[in-house]
Design a protein that fits this description.
about 425 residues; mainly alpha
Length: about 425
């Protein structure tokens, strides 16, 4: 018994040392964001809040696509480029990623604007026009913020990766709402302007710290391997965002904005059950990548199990909290949002699968099955979206929530299978093979 307790104590101390710093930053960002949603729900009308929540969800879904995948690709490309003596390759990649993000954001913004105008002119029922026009305002800040976050992660600037949007923006929006009630009358535009301003400053600070400000003269190059990796990761990450947000989009299409506001609160709280992936994955992915490069399958499984235990312990605590304390938590947003309790529990169960499945996702994304990874996401999310739409028509918002949870569970089960096959291939391949 003493041996078991001593071993458990060592694991706890090791986990705290390994995940503690990044966990605190992630927790601070998540709490700030949830506090912002609570203040926004209190200081704006239900309709305005519903418009903001659905527009933000759509902009976040499009964020990775608006970087054309260069944001997640930075994690694989930029560290090695920064390690070169003259840094020229890093300059080229940064210019490449900034240019692609600018062009794609302009293109997506134009499409969103046209859809919004067409929806209003044709008087299409639901919130399509409202969501797309709101997303058009928010997308530039979200897209460049996503690129800034991944560039900062790739170069070890964790604070600049997590704080600007997760904390600074949310606190600034809360302060504006409290100081000026009229800010809540046009919540989407006000938040979009604040976000764009903050992201310009944060990106400038990051580039200066990297020694890339002002950018040294560098050609705009489109290396084939960069394009291939960016496209694969764009499909992977956009599909992942769609898994987390497609249900808000469907609720916004099918139901009034006040109903969408209620659902959005549950949807934003539920990911607390999978929050562990935000601090487990950044720490474990380097260890798993190194073990896979060495073809040490045993070590990979050890790291995966470590991540699974951390995720399971965290998500269990959140599920207990939401099961017995959902009314006080939802009451922070206002009495109107108390009706989201059942939706919150359902979505939290789905997010629990993500807390576990993200550990297998690391293996799948690092391995040679990147395109299989992307295909699985879309093979799950597209039928899941259709199922949620039909369930919404038949059973209301509860049907959408159940379909969303089932989709998440199905996807994470598929990730576990891909990881198992990937490691089986790794263990069977010759030592010198690529």
């Amino acid at each position: 018994m003493k041996t078991v307790l001593a071993h458990t104590n060592r694991l706890a101390r090791g986990g705290l040392r390994r995940f503690g710093g990044s966990a605190l930053l992630v927790a601070l960002g998540r709490l700030a964001f949830l506090a912002f949603f609570a203040v926004a729900a209190r200081f704006s009308s239900v309709t305005q809040f519903g418009e903001f929540a659905t527009s933000l969800a759509l902009a976040q879904i499009l964020a990775i696509a608006a970087t054309l995948g260069t944001a997640p690709a930075a994690q694989a490309i930029l560290p090695a480029a920064m390690g070169r003596r003259n840094g020229r390759l890093a300059d080229i990649f940064i210019r490449f990623s900034l240019t692609m993000t600018l062009l794609a954001t302009l293109g997506f913004g134009l499409v969103l604007l046209l859809i919004g105008i067409a929806a209003d002119q044709l008087d299409i029922p639901g919130g399509l026009g409202t969501m797309t026009l709101g997303a058009c305002y928010l997308l530039p800040g979200i897209a460049f913020g996503t690129l800034r976050e991944f560039l900062a992660r790739s170069t070890g600037h964790t604070t600049l990766a997590l704080l600007p949007r997760d904390v600074v923006w949310t606190v600034a929006c809360m302060a504006a709402l409290i100081a000026s009630p009229t800010f809540g009358d046009n919540l989407v535009v006000g938040c979009a302007v604040l976000l764009a301003t903050i992201e310009v400053g944060a990106t400038a600070i990051l580039l200066r710290r990297l020694g890339r400000w002002p950018l040294r003269k560098a050609p705009l190059r489109f290396f084939k391997q960069w394009r291939r990796r960016s496209l694969a990761l764009m499909l992977n990450n956009t599909g992942g965002l769609l898994l987390d947000r497609f249900d808000i989009f469907i609720v916004g299409l099918l139901f009034p904005l006040d109903a969408a506001a209620v659902y959005s609160v549950a949807n934003r709280l539920a990911p607390l059950a999978s929050l562990s992936q935000r601090f487990v994955v950044p720490v474990q992915i380097a260890k798993i990548s190194l073990a896979m490069a060495r073809r040490d399958v045993t070590q990979v499984w050890l790291e995966v199990r470590t991540g699974l235990l951390a995720g399971a312990a965290f998500t269990l605590g959140v599920l207990l909290l939401f099961s017995f304390g959902n009314q006080p938590i939802l009451g922070l947003y206002g009495d109107h949002y108390l009706q989201a309790a059942q939706i919150l529990l359902i979505l939290s169960v789905g997010q629990s699968a993500t807390a576990l499945g993200s550990n297998f996702g690391m293996v799948a994304s690092i391995g040679h099955r990147k395109w299989t990874f992307a295909i699985i996401i879309w093979l799950v999310v597209l039928p899941g979206g259709l199922l949620a739409y039909m369930a919404g028509l038949w059973f209301g918002m509860m049907g959408v929530a159940i379909a969303a949870a089932v989709t998440l569970i199905t996807y994470n089960f598929a990730l576990a299978q891909v990881a198992r096959i990937t490691l089986a291939d790794l263990g069977n391949s010759p030592a010198g093979s690529p």
